[in-house]
Design a protein that fits this description.
The complex is a heterodimer of chains A (about 250) and B (about 180).
Chain A lengths: L5 H18 L5 H11 L3 H28 L2 H15 L2 H5 L9 H12 L1 H14 L4 H23 L18 E7 L6 H11 L6 E2 L9 E5 L5 H12 L4 E7 L1
Antiparallel strand pairs in A: 1-3, 1-4, 2-3
Helix pairs in contact in A: 1-2, 1-3, 4-10, 7-8
Chain B lengths: L1 H12 L3 H22 L3 H18 L9 H19 L35 H8 L4 H11 L4 H8 L3 H23 L1
Helix pairs in contact in B: 1-2, 2-3, 2-4, 3-4, 4-7, 5-8, 6-8, 7-8
Classes of the chains: A alpha+beta (about 250), B mainly alpha (about 180).
């Protein structure tokens, strides 16, 4: 096709502007029909589309390669979780005061926190603080708050259950699992298991009996192992010569 | 997928860490790949990716469902990447090239298919050619390659769709010229 008049030129330019999205397949059906009708007889746009498909394909391939070489999803997840739980306990994050414009989800979040024992205690303390009371009443109120605080504190400080193992039917969905790959394919699974068992000797971890389909050993850890400890364990494993990869499973 | 992601994000808004982990695993590769082209330093890429996903946790309650989850998250990623570029400006330039209206009807070799000798794009040459683009041009080309529609890109970078088309047009022309020059 030759672009020989203003109307044709305008249509050509309009279609040309849409070609990147024809290449990535995100045009709506009307736009796609318009583009396809035009490129059926426009060599320039057809060639441009071929080139764009090659270009976006290569950009995408490069991004995949870069990600495979440089990214570490498990490490980054641990880092973000450390930030979430390190800046403030999650319960404190949930306890954020929200504005009157809060969404229903925000309201739920606040309601759940205020219904918690610590939240109710906090509100009582704030009420006493704000109220105008005689001195003896204020002292009595402080004593009352202290008495109420003891069971709440005990509840919060109570140790978690001792860790559970993978074979335990009571293992919760919150149990963390690590998949450990090995650097040396020639080593037997028993040798690998032995090495991992040595590394995990001081950890409340349970090794799965059989490796997964990729030959990785799966380690279960109870949810009493916090994010910082998990991060420390992953570094320990990654630092060992026998270990090729460590992945935190979803 | 989009409805599943909305459900995950609503669960994150309620403080569900498992939902956050699932969303994290979906978006970590996508965000990392997007900011990877904009920030030249691996550490900055990791940092911007983590900052974005941390902001998702913090801001999940503010998501009103007016856009797709991916558009909302990529909008955060874009702002994090721009913030990082501003902070570490020696790594890259954010200067927009002057828009030359005559260029839209330019019949030079980069715009003339008769002079094109091939339609495949090779890795290393492409990497170098992409570096000649402005940041905003690279952003739109990356988002096109990651499969975003024009409307989504406009929402992510907060500009009109026509601006997205103009940036893409100039990016294409510049890449074509650069790759042609490399050949000759």
């Amino acid at each position: 096709m030759t672009v020989d008049n203003d109307d044709t030129r305008a249509l050509h330019d309009e279609v040309s502007a849409l070609l990147p999205w024809r290449a990535n397949g995100t045009l709506d059906s009307a736009q796609q029909a318009q583009v396809d009708a035009h490129i059926a007889h426009c060599d320039e746009c057809r060639q441009e589309l071929d080139w764009l498909q090659s270009l976006t394909g290569e950009i995408s391939t490069q991004a995949d390669t870069h990600y495979a070489q440089h990214a570490d999803v498990a490490r980054d997840f641990m880092q973000v979780m450390t930030r979430i739980t390190g800046d403030a306990p999650v319960s404190d994050i949930r306890n954020t005061e929200y504005s009157a414009h809060s969404t229903p989800a925000q309201g739920d979040r606040r309601a759940r926190v205020e219904d918690a024992p610590a939240g109710r205690l906090h509100r009582l303390a704030r009420w006493i603080e704000a109220a105008t009371l005689p001195q003896w009443a204020a002292v009595a109120a402080v004593v009352l708050v202290a008495i109420l605080a003891v069971p709440v504190m005990m509840q919060q400080l109570a140790p978690e259950n001792s860790y559970r193992v993978l074979s335990d039917p009571a293992v919760s969905d919150n149990t963390r699992r690590l998949a450990i790959g090995f650097a040396d394919n020639r080593a037997s699974i028993d040798e690998n298991r032995q090495r991992i068992a040595e590394l995990l000797a001081d950890w409340p971890a349970q090794l799965q009996r059989e490796p997964d389909a990729a030959g990785r050993l799966i380690v279960g850890l109870p949810d009493t192992v916090d994010v910082e400890q998990m991060s420390q364990l992953m570094r320990l494993l990654q630092g060992d010569a026998a270990v090729g990869s460590v992945e935190l499973l979803p | 997928m989009s409805e599943d992601e909305q459900a995950l994000l609503h669960a994150v808004a309620r403080g569900d860490q498992s939902a956050f982990e699932a969303l994290f695993r979906i978006y970590h590769p996508r965000v990392h790949k997007f900011v990877g082209r904009l920030l030249s330093d691996h550490l900055l890429v990791d940092e911007a990716t983590c900052d974005t996903l941390y902001a998702v946790w913090q801001g999940a309650t503010r998501f009103q469902g007016q856009s797709r989850v991916s558009t909302w998250i990529f909008g955060i990623a874009y702002r994090q990447a721009m913030k990082s570029l501003d902070k570490h400006s020696r790594y890259s330039s954010r200067i927009e090239p002057d828009i030359d209206s005559d260029a839209l009807t330019d019949t030079g070799s980069a715009n003339n298919p008769a002079t094109w000798t091939e339609h495949t794009v090779e890795g290393e040459r492409l990497t170098q050619a992409l570096q000649t683009l402005s940041t905003e041009q690279r952003v739109v080309m990356e988002l096109v390659a990651l499969g975003h529609s024009c409307a989504e890109i406009a929402a992510i970078v907060e500009c009109p769709e026509n601006t997205v088309k103009t940036r893409t047009f100039h990016a294409r022309r510049k890449l074509r010229a650069q790759l042609q020059a490399d050949e000759s």
